[in-house]
Task: structure prediction
Amino acid sequence: MPHFPSQTHTFYWREICALRELGAEVRCISTTHPPAGEVVHSWAHEARDQTRYLTPVSPAAFLRGCGRMLTAGPFAWARCAELTLGLDDGGLRSKVRLSALVPVAGILSRICRDEGIEHLHAHSLGDVAMLAMLCHELGGPPYSVTLHGPLEHYGPAQRAKWTHAAFAICVSNRLKQEVLSRIPEMDPSKIEVVSMGVDTRVFCRHTPYEPPAQHETWRLVSCGRLHPAKGHDDCIRALSLLRARGIDAHLCILGDGPARHDLESLVESLGLASAVTLAGAVSEERVRHELAHAHAFCLGSHDEAIGVATMEAMSMGLPVIVTRVGGVPELVEHESTGMLVPPRDPQAMADAIERVLCDTALARRISDAARLRIEQDFDARRSAEVIARRLGMLSTDASVRTGASVEAGAA
Result:
């Protein structure tokens, strides 16, 4: 994993815990340390204590990695050179940078040998997958990958990373089709479709969902990194439209990031300082608290692989108003398990929020259906079950809802 445990890595930890429940002995390896001060989750310290970090590389570790490279032999050296310097989809700078990963892959291979690691699962198609592939070429174990977003985000050498993997997971059908379109030689049977998920035992309500009573303040919540692509500005503008209609509404945005200053300026310019809370990076416990006390969840993403924050809100039985982008329609069925609106359209978002919260029967029906949808197809244990089955820990007829059921559930 890259820079683990970071603020957005809750689903990694859920998968790790689920694998352990299934009987796997799991080791955590991260390419780098997480940014200082970013992690606020209660499980983060335990995760950090369990994680082995590949960088920065100490002189002793570098020598051990080089030793592992030497013992791998000339054929392995040639394969690593072909996979890095022989890229057909990267420039000279990329080739040099990736070739510098070979000694680090030697360190990883040595760790795998010393600790008896039999399989590597890479939670990124960037450098993490490159290291897993090079490690395998240097005599390390087979590897698999999970794709969380569009391939264009993960750099060169995608064809090699995918075709050399023992198996792969895509978090949505849309991403699987992107992989098969871009890498036609990839065997479709090696790709499972199973979303990132939610621990439904933790993200659950203790009291029934209640829409806002007459004259009660509408409590809206959004959650996600403060980045322009998340569309938080559209949620703020939608709130402004609701208040212009005489609706007393408040929006709490959970998360932090580079767009914070721009959002603060927007809130100030719209005169919403008392109606918008930018809560910053918060713990999982705070996320659950806010979801439990909100009337609706909204997110204006311009693109989204599928959306863990939306899943968490649905697991809490909260009506969600989200954009029809990426793999989101595989999660949210319009007017059944939530409301879908076009991206970059604050008017449509405001209309959908008003429609749901003014219709108590609709709000309660969506609340119930949203929770059931997550329980059936987006429990966090499903990805762990897929990995365990692929590794021979579960029988092939074990009940695991992946690709076909996700697609059918969204139809």
The longest strand covers residues 218-223. Residues 73 and 138 are 8 Å apart (CA to CA). Confidence is low (pLDDT under 50) at residues 399-411.
